[in-house]
Design goal:
72 residues, mainly alpha, 67% helix, flat, IS110 family transposase
Amino acid sequence: MPTRQQLKRALFPSAFAALGDPASQVYYDKKIARGKHHTQALLCLARRRAGVLFAMLRDGTFYASRPTATVS
């Protein structure tokens, strides 16, 4: 069973790489706007991605990104 630290080490770089995805970037920017620091915002994104991964495994589905809403 992996420890929390091992999971954090695995998910943190994944969240950093996910900043190329527009939906992830919007989520990260929202966390930054709410006063989170870079590392805290990335950890929030990593936890969110872990939830998505769990749902994909639970439901037996593939990832499908949602279109992001643009604010004018």
